[in-house]
Specification:
The protein is an alpha+beta fold and about 750 residues long. The protein contains 23 helices and 11 strands. Belongs to the V-ATPase 116 kDa subunit family.
Length: about 750
Amino acid sequence: MGSLFRSEEVCLAQLFLQSASAYSCISELGERGLLEFRDLNPKVSPFQRRFVGEVRRCEEMEKTFTFLQQELRGAGRVPAPCPESPRAPAAREALRVQEQSEQLAQELREVTRNRASLRGRLRDLRQYLHVLREGQRFTSLPAPLGSPPRPRALSDREPILDPSLHQHLERKINFVTGVIHPWRVTAFERLLWRACRGYLVASFVEMPEPMEDPATGESITWVIFLISYWGEQIGQKIRKISDCFHCQVYPYPEGEASRTDTITGLHSQIQDLSVVLEETEQYLAQVLDKVALALPTWRVQVQKMKAIYLILNQCSFDVTEKCLIAEVWCPVRDLTQVQDALRQGSYQSGSSVECFVQRVPTSESPPTLIRTNKFTAGFQSIVDAYGVASYQEVNPAPYAIITFPFIFAIMFGDVGHGLLMFLFALWMVLFEASPRLRQGTNEIWLMFFEGRYLILLMGAFSIYTGFIYNECFSKATTIFPSAWSVATMANHSSWSSEYLATHPSLTLDPNVTGVFRGPYPFGIDPIWSLATNHLNFLNSFKMKMSVVLGIVHMGFGVVLGVFNHLHFKQRHRLVLEFLPEMIFLLGLFGYLVFLIFYKWIKFSAADSRLAPSILIHFIDMFLFTSNAENLPLYPGQVPVQTVLVVLALASVPVLLLGTPLYQWCHQRAPRTVRLGAPVATGEQEPLLEGQEAGNSVNATKEDVESGGHSPDAKRLDFAEIFMHQAIHTIEYCLGCVSNTASYLRLWALSLAHARES
């Protein structure tokens, strides 16, 4: 629990890895997730590092995996998540994964290309078949002799090849047939008429069944056209116009017998292609099954392998280039686990020389490490969104586990609504191990699921505040009998029938004996929901409650800073920072809380009309004046308020200048900085290649003694300290005012929730 209230102790350490076992050692460390690596080659380009070839190979495999995943999505399949976290593959296993993935990708490309070709060919044959069938209706021969004559009315279905007219025709009639997109029919017909000057007969009819558009993949109903013309020049114009409109033109046999034979041949080809296409689809499904089964595991393995090589690129080789040296930030209590992981990695690689870890002293500030679990992770994320605490500072997340849901419940206080939220979160908590809940793809759902414990507490606190507000789905509930007695008021008043008829609203006077029998056992009396001044009562109650809770919350946050000052042994900050902050906060806004409670205690229902306004008193306090019409709450109120304002204003320069002046005076005293390890004299001998001076590995004696700073560092540090303290002072003083006003949102949103529900 120590790491929950304060970040863990972290140290800088060096890892000495043998070249042959470096990969397996980093893999073992990565599985345990204990370290944060530092880049020892900051000036080396990523393309000039030792393992850039391996990283590129991983990226090529990731490209192949992306193609395979796109093919799965195109087939309407969603790859299942990896059931377990596989380890990073060894070198031979990585080659096998690369070969198998490339082989599957090549098979998918070939099968997909063949399927697309077969589908296109089948689509063309079906379109050609429909064209011939529709053309057969237009160019069919007349009925045999003896049948009744057909009328000569013009119709779209009228045969345009009448043998009785052939003897009057000197030229041969030719045909152009095909299909066209329905959106282009009107423009196509208009251009044909204008270009050919009417020397043609064009017929258009929709295809009986919709077919896929090869350009967009959508299913549309194509339009079949049959154009008869005279003359070769007209035919060339028609074909050119058809090409411009991206029409699919098909040959049209002249004789009816040849058309019948062509239709029969098309039926046979369509059947054969359908069989081949079905077999191709089955083979493609088998390949996709293999991809869906292996792809999740391959992707995780390659991601881990790439991460390992990226870490190895951050390491430096020693002079002999047989040992890699890495610098890491490591929790102090996990050093033994790190050594055990290095020993395990060396054993797995078959190396006879074990790798080891060595702690290194440093003056740098380590990163913040706060361990979380499934319950605290959501609250820690909220705190980190506002800012991550510095190293070894107090972590406010444990306290936010209570304060955040409770402040939400103040705005959302309703038993019914809180119960619905609580049950929804309880369902997610009880079934949190379900893969369907954990592995969803909807981002909004995942956000709800990750914050299930937060929602659970928010619902529970909303139920509690709902009982205080006495609201269930915005309706008052009578759990206990009301403390107000209407009968007693009626017995002690002159309410007649005429009075009741002319006064729709009646006033209950608590000063009448027996009308008000004491406070309600828990929460707000339900009779207030029937009162006409219900909103005024809740306005006053919730506004004062929001101010009181907000100032208490801010004061608690200031008190937490005491633990930081004591932990870092900066006791001067207790006097120069904590004390002025508390004087400023309590002298102004703490006094406001005192006035609220004092007014509640001093004035009763009998003299409530004589109670002064707290708001006017608070304004007069800043103006150093008094209002004769607004009576004081207690004797000597004006001098007390004047002293509090003066103390609050006097605490501001102390807060602004106290810490910078103390540190400036403290830095003037000569002192040396000693680290926990002796530093050899003489010239610097670099342990790592390409490492900057000033790092913990290559630190010289002069660097250590001066802390790695230049002679002007004191003036620079003092300027930074003063600027930081000025920002802190302005932010704190303005924040006390703005945050107090901001807490009034609790009052406003609580009323809005009660009214809108």
